[in-house]
Amino acid sequence: MDVPAAVASALDEESVAARVPLRGDDALFVTPTRTLVYHADGLLSSESVEELGHDAERVAVDDGRRKTTLTLDYGLDGERSVVVPAGRVDDVLHPVLAGVLNAAGVTDPGESVSRTYHFNELTLAVTDRRLVRHVGAAVWDEDYDEIDYADVTGFDTEEGSVASQLVLETTGRTQRIKVPNEQFRDVRETVEEALYEFHGVPSRAAFHEAMREESADEASGAAGESDDADDADAAVAFADAGIDAIGERRGERRDAAAGGDRHAPERDASAAAVDADRIETTATDDANSAGDPDPADDTGPADDANPRVDATGATPRDDATASEAEAGDSIAAAGASVTSDGDETPERTAPFDSDALVAELEAARDAIADQRDRAEAQRDTLERQRRAIDAQLDALDEQRERLEDALDAIPDR
């Protein structure tokens, strides 16, 4: 790359990332941190180098008929501008904007900006990792948004009469980018190429297939985690109710109900044995009291040979059995109470008509889109009229110059 001596001395060992010829020998040199504008020797000016740092807060473009002014705003430090030919503005804007995005931390070190597009109030920067979008009068400022290719799960297009849209499905929301039809194909192919290369797929069909497989894998993993959580909850419920889960041996219940204490099942078994001993002792006492002769009862030897029967006809053994049954019923009731408490769910709210809300929002979105299309159509019409007027003014300027040349060629003048 041909670098003038004045530029080489101003580089200070920085490398030149891009060179853009301007007019004659004038040129613009872009480094990772600065933009150097070289002005060659002329009839009315001497050789000079102008420096613009990339740490700008705002970048603006003022288009003229023959010249375009690129302005970098540094906030409290003021502004710096460079005037370039109107036909070179895109060539100049691309490397300068790439340097500003890198200096602002929008792009990562080593991330390359493949293309930049500027359409009236829309600016797009396509990198190998993301899509940076800015909407507004400025080319770029801190009010921007970005779409990481890692978050994109679907890609589609929507064609319109004046402008068409890129539709990018992401994990958070659907992103739509409207581009004039004249440049839509170029933008679409550039974005698709960067997106598919990031995901390692050759085409849109392959990209959607890869996204479906990834979604299926995530759903399968989530289902497995849910099943494991359900099994753990069931084990805790069984342990709280004092019931052994299917497939577990007694004394080997899970530690979830005991708070991780491995000796808790042994203590539960000991407590159950103590309760059984109490029930058996009560039944034995009832049987012994029933076997003693009642002084008030004079029934004879036949009655003493048989256990005493109460008014209901129940024997002491029946009382013991009833006591055991009552104890079992109490345990079962406690387990049922625990299960019932665990199954309590909050009261359901009233049904919400989401379909009506979605339809209403879609209708509003379509109405806004129609208004935007009409506004863009009017703006495009005004832009064409402005270009036609500029062409007429240029033609008048050329005619004036030819007339002046013809007048200068007359000897008597």
UniProtKB/TrEMBL annotation:
InterPro entries: DUF7115 (IPR055539). Residues 247-280 have a biased composition (Basic and acidic residues). Residues 322-337 have a biased composition (Low complexity). Residues 209-230, 247-354 are annotated as: Disordered. Residues 1-108 form the DUF7115 domain. It comes from the Archaea. Keywords: Coiled coil. The keyword Coiled coil applies. Residues 354-413 form a coiled coil. The keyword Coiled coil applies. This is DUF7115 domain-containing protein. The lineage of its organism: Archaea, Methanobacteriati, Methanobacteriota, Stenosarchaea group, Halobacteria.
